[in-house]
Amino acid sequence: MEKRETWGSKLGFILASAGSAIGIGAIWKLPYVAATAGGGSFFILFLLLTVFIVLPVLISEFIIGRSSKADAITAYKKLAPGTKWNWLGKMGVAGASILFSFYSVVGGWIITYLIKAFSLSLSGLSQPELLEEFGKTTANPYISILATFTFIALNVFVIRRGIVSGIEKMNKFMMPALFILFVVLIIRSLTLDGAMAGVEFFLKPDFGAITGHTVLIALGQAFFSLSVGLSVMVTYSSYLSRSVSLPQSATSVALMNLGVSLLAGLAIFPATFALDIKPDAGPGLLFVILPSIFSQLPFGTFFFIIFLILFLFAALTSSFSLLEVTVAPLMAQGTSRKKASTLTGLVIMLLAIPSALSFGVFANIHIFGLTFFDLADYLVSNLLLPIGALLISIFVGFRMPRKLLLEEFQAGSKISYKIFIIWLFLIKFIAPIGILFVFLYATGILK
Predict the structure, then answer these.
(1) Is the distance from CB of 269 to CB of 201 less than 8 angstroms?
(2) Facing residues of 205 across strands?
(3) 354-380 per-position pLDDT tens digit
(4) DSSP for 385-413?
(5) How confident is the model over 398-429, as pLDDT tens digits?
(6) How far, in Å, CA of 393 to CA of 229, rounded?
(7) Are 275 and 296 in contact (CB under 8 A)?
(8) Environment class of residue 351 by beta-carbon count within 10 Å: exposed (0-12), middle (13-18) or buried (19+)?
(9) In whole angstroms, what is the distance from residue 382 CA to residue 390 CA?
(10) Which CATH class is domain 10-442?
(11) Structural domain boundaries of the chain?
């Protein structure tokens, strides 16, 4: 069995964890959700709910991982031997595998569009033509499969290299680059005529627009933005030394996620408002609306390429963690990292085929009224993530010894006992209630 690795530095761990949380869905979804739920008032709600509900669960995953020094499945076996809690880890591994399979399809689209942008094949196309191009691209089985497999192969290449030489090294490059690219796009976006209307909409709160529905939407966005619930952060924190403060690291990750959400809004809203386009197209925003926006700007192709590179970095830093959480249990059984990474990558490729073909060959195949791609998305986002986060809150709040929780919470810092008590109250009572509301709302039980 290979010697268990550790992160090379605290910064490397924070950047990797933040990269795991900051995905393409969060970048394109937050502006859209904010646009339909009150703009600035929504963002304030999003911030508060992230701090009081999502952050406590993130700290909990960190505690489970570092205290056990084990993968997602073995961690629960160590902390609750002789119980069925290890099924929580198994559910996390299964959920991460499913999420990675359909996430890779979108990652493949980004790679495809990068090639199209470099070849200038999108230049001068109108929105209807771009929409038709997007439909043709996603429906082409050869392009979809090859691009999806390429994205997965990039992940396998990095994960095979290990924690320090692979994940940490790439995140130390990609995360700063992501922020720099955002700044470039924000500067260009803010210099457009009429851009301030978009900034005002995004940042000026309209508390009169807040309803119970808005709160639930903000809570769901805050919850899913950090992707807690699949024990991904359990795996990442299991490689962490006790000299690092878990609450401080989790706070840094949450702040970086909030920062990227803010940057996403400042990059997208001014441009869409300036050109009289509303950011409500979901995936189409990236592959249809934005190309048409950039085509109207000087050096538009250059800025669109920057945007696609940014999204590719965000996609990769998230997917690294999804693959790692599935590789770690195999390594715990004695399989080498390189072999485990390759085998898992091949399995994910097979698992991704139905989702990759959901927009073409399998477009007319539906299960419960959903395509394979939508079914995988629904299964993870609406069921496995909230259920996993709820069970993690219960496990940490009521199953783990209080003494162990306090030791892990205070290790590497001088955080007071009062802060620990506040966190414990949030994780035992406030977070489970919030997660339950998200689950009921996401499944349509609560409307």
Answers:
(1) yes
(2) 39
(3) 999 999 999 999 999 999 999 998 899
(4) HHHHHHHHHHIIIIIS-HHHHHHHHHTTS
(5) 999 999 999 999 999 889 999 999 999 999 99
(6) 9
(7) yes
(8) middle
(9) 12
(10) mainly alpha
(11) 10-442
